[in-house]
Design a protein that fits this description.
The protein is an all-alpha fold. It has a two-stranded antiparallel ribbon. It is globular. The longest helix has 46 residues, at 200-245. A hairpin with a 2-residue loop joins strand 1 (397-402) and strand 2. The chain is 80% helix and 3% strand. The chain has helices at residues 5-23, 29-36, 40-68, 70-94, 97-116, 119-129, 133-164, 168-187, 200-245, 251-275, 280-301, 307-334, 338-366, 371-391, 416-420; strands at 397-402, 405-410. Helix 2 crosses helix 3 and helix 3 (40-68) runs antiparallel to helix 13. It is built from 15 helices and two strands.
Length: 426
């Protein structure tokens, strides 16, 4: 892993910058609402439209990365994301009212198109770059840590920039994307890609076979990833609204408060990636513990809206999410053959984006309801994630000697379509 240190630095910049480009807007959503004269639900669409278009295009990006190579998809995607950020920035700067909102929304849609081929492709690329499962686990832990660190920094940076000029976070997006583009171009050296000649029909058939053979645990991991992100963005939207409307916290101070639960998430992601190694059973139970922590914290939060109480419980819940995500990433990446890895992990990323897209609007609609109702709904959703982790994620392990030692490797039946076309990993 040491000789790929700079590759990892460059790849880790992608989730960091993609997260900043999205989450920086959360602390300034009330400002955007006031500046443009739009409702809370309409402003939440700036987060949702970005995620929805990514959901639709991520599987296509995954297929293209399997066929033509990861880096060839990541770089153009980052350029598109930068262009989308630029469109939103110009609209916010030069226009106002509903006209500005419409163009900003279009820019966010374009940014979502770029996001579809950026961070989701990083996960399978890490799986391609390392042969040992323990190295993959540690590297994906770093990638998730970068992702969550972006969530820690984003409310502080977004609030700071917004306190200067409300649309400054939009202007920062193209500049951040440019940094990542240069790092990927010059530092990432992926393994030689053998072009996959599958037709679209063959691709769809093989993907269907993979999902049929491994569907139970794959669908569970897809859902768990979506539920985790629903929890993150739902809680962030809730905190952003009440900190400003109820407690009159604005600017950097508000950003610092939002960063507290996210810092717990970041630290938990780093530690989970570092210590779970290649033990699939440990990944399952760490993920289950994380989802249980999230569910319990949301239930207890429902009994009080006192801000110190809410922040403390949300930090515990965020730690739970941080424990879960690296485990799900690694189980998925190591459980799928290399030739299908981009496609399957892209479906997982789509589910995560579904969580991102649903969190803010669902919470915005529930804000008018009782505090207890809001958090019981969130707890019920996360409880489903805990149950899925317990009952559906069942890695089967066997001891397999390698060079005099032993390692633990998950066994799955290979789909017939893969073996027939010599696509299975050899």
């Amino acid at each position: 892993m040491e000789n790929k240190k700079w590759d990892l630095v460059a790849l880790a910049s992608i989730p960091l910058i993609m997260t900043l480009g999205n989450s920086m807007l959360i602390p300034i959503l009330p400002q955007i609402s006031r500046a443009l004269g739009i409702s809370s639900f309409m402003v939440s669409m700036l987060i949702t439209v970005y995620a929805v278009v990514a959901i639709l295009l991520i599987p296509i990006a995954g297929y293209l990365s399997d066929r033509y190579g990861r880096k060839k998809i990541i770089i153009p995607s980052l350029i598109i994301a930068a262009a989308g950020g630029g469109v939103s920035a110009v609209a916010a700067w030069l226009m106002d009212g509903m006209g500005a909102y419409t163009v900003i929304l279009a820019g966010r849609l374009l940014q979502g198109i770029g996001a579809a081929g950026a961070f989701p492709i990083v996960i399978p690329l890490v799986g391609d770059m390392f042969k040992e499962e323990e190295e993959v686990s540690k590297s994906l832990g770093i990638i998730e840590t970068s992702n969550t660190f972006g969530k820690v920094v984003s409310p502080i940076l977004g609030a700071f920039l917004g306190s200067i000029i409300w649309y400054l976070p939009f202007i920062a997006i193209p500049a951040l994307c440019l940094i990542s583009i240069l790092l990927v171009i010059f530092l990432v050296k992926p393994p030689k890609h053998k072009e996959n000649k599958q037709s679209v029909r063959e691709f769809l058939k093989t993907t269907k076979e993979v999902l049929h053979e491994k569907g139970r645990w794959l669908y569970a991991i897809f859902a768990i990833g979506g539920i985790a992100m629903f929890g993150v963005f739902g809680v962030l939207f809730y905190l952003s609204e009440i900190l400003e409307s109820t407690y009159q916290l604005k600017g950097v101070l508000k950003g610092l408060v939002l960063a507290i639960p996210l810092a717990g998430l970041c630290l938990a992601s780093f530690l989970a990636g570092k210590f779970i190694g290649n033990n699939k059973t440990a990944m399952k139970w760490t993920g289950f513990t994380g989802m249980t922590l999230l569910t319990a914290s949301l239930i207890i939060t429902g009994f009080s809206d006192q801000i110190y109480f809410v922040i403390s419980l949300m930090t515990i819940g965020s730690i739970g999410i941080g424990l879960t995500l690296p485990c799900m990433d690694t189980l998925l990446t190591e459980g799928v053959e290399k030739e299908q890895r981009g496609t399957i992990t892209s479906l997982y990323s789509s589910m995560r984006f579904i969580g991102v897209s649903l969190g803010p609007p669902v919470v915005s609609l529930l804000l008018g309801a009782n505090h207890w109702v809001l958090f019981i709904v969130l707890a019920a959703v996360s409880g489903i994630g805990a149950l899925l982790t317990f009952f559906a994620v069942k890695p089967e392990e066997r001891e397999q000697g390698r060079g005099g030692g032993s390692s633990r490797k998950m066994q799955f039946k290979k789909p017939h379509g893969l073996s027939n076309r010599n696509l299975a990993r050899k």
